[in-house]
Here is the input.
Amino acid sequence: MRRMTWFNVTSLTLGFAFLYLPMLILIIFSFNESKLVTVWAGFSTKWYGEVLRNTAFLDAAWVTIKVAFLSSCLATVLGTMAAIVMVRAGRFRGRTVFSGMIYAPMVMPEVITGLSLLLLFISLGMDRGVFTIVLAHTTFAMCYVSVVVSSRLVSFDQSLEEAALDLGCSPVQAFRLVTLPIIAPAVISGWLLAFTLSLDDLVIASFTSGPSATTLPMKIWSSVRLGVSPEINALSTIMILVVAIGVITASLINKRNVVRQQREEAAAEKLA
Amino acid sequence: MRRLLIAVPFLWLLALFIVPFAIVFKISLSDLAVAIPPYTPTLDIAEGWAGLKAFFAELDFENYIWLTEDDLYWKAYLSSFKIAVISTLLTLLVGYPIAYGIARAPQEWRAMLFMLVILPFWTSFLIRVYSWMGILSQEGYLNQVLLWIGVINEPLIILNTNIAVYIGIVYTYLPFMILPIYAALEKLDISLLEAAEDLGCSRFSAFWLVTVPLSKQGIIAGSFLVFIPTIGEFVIPSLLGGSRTLMIGKVLWEEFFSNRDWPVASAVAVVLLLILIIPIVLFQRNEQKQREANQ
Amino acid sequence: MALDVFAPWDDPNAKPLIQFQNVTKRFGDFTAIDDLTVDIFEKEFFALLGPSGCGKTTMMRMLAGFETPTEGKILLAGQDIGAVPPNKRAVNMMFQSYALFPHLSIWENIAFGLKRDKMPKDQIGERVEEMLRLTRLEKFARRKPHQISGGQRQRVALARSLAKAPKLLLLDEPLGALDKKLRQETQFELMDIQETTGTTFVIVTHDQEEAMTVASRVAVMDHGKIIQVSTPDVIYEAPNSTYVADFIGDVNLISGKADPQGDKLHMHWAEGQPAVVGSPLDGATKGQDVHYAIRPEKVSISAEKPENAANAIQGEVHDIAYLGNISTYHVQLPGGQIIKAQSANNRRISRRAFTWEDKVWLSWTDTAGVFLER
Here is the structure.
C-alpha cells in the first residue's frame, strides 16, 4: 500500500474541517451566555432551558415525531412492496412507468412536489394537517425505502426462497419466514432513512400542512428567517446530537455484527 | 397476490405523484381569481358535458406568455442555471480531493471516514444551512477571525450575497459529490497506476491519464446529483442569499405564498419540470450504463 | 441372472416413480429440454450428467416444481404433477448453494419443513434428532449456518431436505462446493444415506466421476436431449455415440469407412495402415462413415510386434504422462494421429521400458473397442 501523501492528508483535514466546523461552532455557541450570538460571554445552559420551556417548540416537535413515525412506517411498507415489484415481478405492463414513478420523486425539486400535492389536497377538499403531511412524506420517502430495499434484494440468493417453497411454504409464508428476516437490516435502514427525511423536511411540509399542524422545521424556519438566535442554536444542537448518536450507534452495531460473523466463519473453517 | 403487490404502490404513486402533476398543469392553464380556490375555471361536474366543454374553453396559455413577458422569470431561470452550474463545479473541485483522500486512506480508516461523510447527510438540512448564517454574517465568526489575524480591516459582506449561496450549496451537497466519486475510485486497482508509472508516466500524468478517466462515471453521477436539486433549491437562497439572489425555487415559493398567484406558480413549476427533464434523463442513462457495465 | 440384482428398468412390469413423457421446455426462443422421455424408478440413484447448459438443471427444477413444462407431462407415481406448486409436492431438493436459512439455527433449519406440515412438536424434535444423527451433526444443532464449515453445511442441507421423508430427493450439484478429498468421502456417505433411507435420489452433476461413483443409472445429456441412459458400466464400456464416449473418461477416437467381413467389422482409416477390426455395428454397410472408440487402458504397448493380435499398429512415443500408479503414452501414428495407451507402473520408474521417440507397437483385441455410428 502507498503511504498517505501530504496532499491526501491535507485535503482530508480541510475537507472534514469544512464539513464539521460549522456544526461544531453552532454547538459551542449554543452554550453561550449572551443573547448576542456571535460574542462569547461565558458558559451557560440557559438556552436549553428556554427551548424545553417553549411549548411552541415542544408542540411542533411532537407533531414532527408523529408525522415522521407514521409516514416512515407507511413508507417502509409501500417501499418494500415497490422494491419487490421492481426486483421480482418481472415484466408487466406499465413497468417503465412504475420505475419512473419510483425514481422521479427523489430528483424532483421539493417546491414542485410540495406545490402539486397541495393542489391535489385542495381540489379534493381535504382538511390540511398531520394527515396530509403524512401522505406527502410517505410518497417521497417510499421511493428512498424502495431503493435501499431493492439494492439488498438484488443480491438476495433466490434459492433461499425456493428452498422455503420446496419445504412446504406458501409464497406468503416464504416471504414472512425467510425473505423478510434476512432483508430486515435493509428494511430497518430504509425506515430510519424515511424517518429522518420526514424529520428534516421543511418545504413539502410547509406546502401540505394547514394551520392546525406546524412541524419543527417549519417552526425553526420562521424563526431563523429573522436571523441567528441562541435558542435555535440550542435546539439545533439537540437535534444534531440525537441524530448523530442514533446513526453512530446503528453503524457500530452493524459493524460489530459483521465482524463477529466473519470471526465465527473463520473459526468454523479452521475447526473443520 | 402478485397483482395486489403491484397495484398498491402503483396506485399510491399514481394518486399522489402523477395526478397532482396533472392538476398543476391544469391550474397553470387557468386564470387568477379572487375566490377560494383562487383560480378559475373550476370543473363543475354537475353540469356534465356542457360544463366540461366550458371548462376546457376557458383554459389557455396566458400564464406561460406572462412568464416570457416579465423578465423576472426568465432571469430567475437563467440565474438558477448559472448558480447550479458554478456550484456543481465548485463542489466537484472540493469533493474530488476528499473522495480521493478517502479512497487512498489505509483500509482500516476508510469505513470510518466514509461514515463521517454520510453523517451530515442524516442531520437536518435546515440546520446545516442555518449554521452558516452565524459564520458569514457581518459580525460573524469568519469576519471576527479574519479581523483578528489582520488580513482585513473591515468586515467582508458575504451573507446575503451569491457567494454565501455557493458556500451553502457546496457545503450541503458535498456528500452527494463525494460518495459516487469515492465508489468509483475505491474500485480502481492501484496496480494500474503502478503500471502507468512503470510505462513512463509521472505521478501527475498517471493521475490525469488513468485515475480521472476511470472515475468519470462517479464524476458524472455526482455532478448530476448536485446539479438537479440545486436548480430548484429554495432554502439556501432564502437564508443565505440576498434580495438580489434570484432562484426559481424562491420565485415559485413567493408567487405561491406571498402573491397567492397559483396559476402563475403552477406555470413556473411546469416550466421548471420541463427544464429538469433533460438532466434527469441524462442522469438515468448514465446510471443505467453503469449498472450494465457492472454486470 | 440373479434375481436380487436391483434393475427395475429391465423389468417390463415395474412401475416407474417418475415419468417424463415427451417433455419440452422453452425459455423464449431457447429450448432447454427437447421432447424428452425417460422413466425413473423407485429407490434409484439416478444421475443427470452433462455440460453446463445441457438442460439437466431445468429437468430438476421441473421435478421440484419451479418450472412447468411447455409441452408434455411429468408423472409422479402415475399422477400428473405439472400444475402442482412446489410446496405441495412430495419432492424435496438440496440446493447447489445449500440455501440454508442464515437467520435460523441448524436445528431450526432441519425442522423448517416439518413445521410447515403442522407435525406435532414432540415428533418434530424426534425427527430432527434422527436427521442430526444420520448426518453426524448432533454437536452443531444450536449453531447458525455461518458458524459451521462448508462440509457441515452440505450435510445440514441434506438433512433438511431428507427430514420430510420425500418420495423423491433432488440434489443439484450437491458436492460442487467441496474440495476434492472431502467430495470423495461424501460421495460414499451419500450412497449410504440413500440406501438407509430407501429414498429415490436424482442428482445433477457435471462431474462424470461423481456420477459414475454414486449412481445406479446415468443419463448423459446434451442440448436438452438425453443421449444415453444406462448403468455406469454400460455407459463406459458401450457408449452409444462418440459424444458419450468422449464425455465419460478418456478415449481414443478413430474415424474411417466401414467394411463388414463375416462376423467382424473392419474399418479402413488411413492409407497403408491395417484396418481396425472389431465387433460388428448393426446396419453398417460397406463404405459408410463410422467411428471407433477405444479406452487407453485397453491399448497395450510393446517393443516387438505382438503375435496374434487382432489389431497392431506401429508408432512413435510422442509424450509420456507419468501419473504415479499408471503412465499414459501418447503415441504418434505415421498419419500424425495420436493414440493414447495406458500401462500400470508395476516396475520402478528407472526401469521404464519406453522413452521419447522410441518406435513401439500398439495392439488390442477385437473386442476391446466399439464401433459407433455417430
Observations:
- The helical segments of chain C are 56-64, 106-116, 121-134, 150-162, 180-197, 208-214, 232-237, 242-247.
